[in-house]
Fold:
Amino acid sequence: MLFADRRLVRFSCRPTYHTITVQPLEGTMVNSNNNSLRGSDAVHETFGEYDLFIGRPNSNFHSSSMPMSAQFGRNGADFLTGGAMDDDLMGGRGTDVLNGGGGADHLDGGDGSDFLTGGAMDDALRGGDGRDFLDEGDGHGDLEGGRGDDFLRGGRGADAFAVDPTSGHDIIYDFKPGGPMFDHLAIRDIKPEDLRFADTIFGVKISWNNDQGSVLLVGVQKNELAQSDFMFADDRYLLQPTDASADRLTAISFAKDEGGALTAPPAAGNTAAETFDFDDFHVQKGAEAADVMQATGDRDAFFGLGGDDKLFGGANDDHLAGDGGADTLDGGDGMDDLRGGAGNDQLYGGAMADNLMGDDGDDQLFGGGGHDMIDGGAGNDTLNGGDGADAYIVTPTSGRDVVVAGFDAGPGAFDHIAFEGGIMPNQVQVADTAQGALVTWGTSASILLVGITTAQMSQDDFMFSDVEGGGYVNNALIQTAGTDFLFV
Structure:
């Protein structure tokens, strides 16, 4: 039997009303207020600026009218569309269509052959298992097809295309090669000497593990490739130019322990106001007070709302949103999406590749291991990328940020500053100070690299996402090694 009912619920935490729509959904979900939802219910709630949608285990259609949304398609063929700001869209099993819309979105197709479109701003797109199509749109995107033979398009702006030994045979349609740093392959668990290069009628094919995996750069030839097109996400390598007829490269290793494997102090208890469990997800929503939410063995999605919250993710890929207040977020292991919201927050990415967004306030962001996207947002933020290649995202309104550790400067695409919001190379100045290299643009924004000198830096340390093909900083002390063509 199909049914839908609407309930008007007053939560004791604040004198406002929250509208809840309950629709059929298979599986069991129980909230922490001991209100059992029907075994076949779907969930649609709006609270604060959020739209929460948990679909049925068959096909779902949902388009958000709220600024931010968290949507879970579950099984079946789902069509999910985000709002004007930052959304988290999870397709689940089945063939899904996810459209992030505006804002910096996190899209995860899950199992099945999915179609993901990021839209404007910086988006993180993960296809999951199956043959997926990913189109990031504008901004500095992070695209990972996952298992299966995938089709990737970065769109406008500089993009990172992540591959590893399990990626399958992917195709990238709009890769912009050559120095300076712009589009690049973010390569995990593959050594430089394992790569093989071959020109085809469609473009250069880069393969590994005896052709068990590969990526085809459509319209690109081998002689157009430069060092800055290759980022080895675990350690910094400088690929060495070779003869045009060669099919492989050698590399100089700059492996370095950057440290910074920090975790948040533990907190006892679990005070979530509402909980939903379904498939492999565990969703919790807080109140306008200081909440604590603990990691589970599932994929956690936590929303702190107001108050100074402490949110802990586990071993899987988690989504943690602190929202208002001075929040502490710890992603743990897995590829996590952490968003501090307004207030002075502390974000700990943990192991693997994470997205950290501090938003408003003077935040502290610790990337941990892996290829992390680190965006302090407005305010004067303290940043530590930890081990692995990290992108430190800055805009004209970023404030005065300080990178206290985890920036490995020099030739070879690795840690870098990603300039966005129309910042041009001729607006950027780099000067040595007693604390380190101070990078400035405009009159009220800068990023200080503690312990780094200008002479230690290279053009690979700078990425201009709004300059087609990238650009160079005009400073004679900054090295150009690493931007040379590889097959000459």
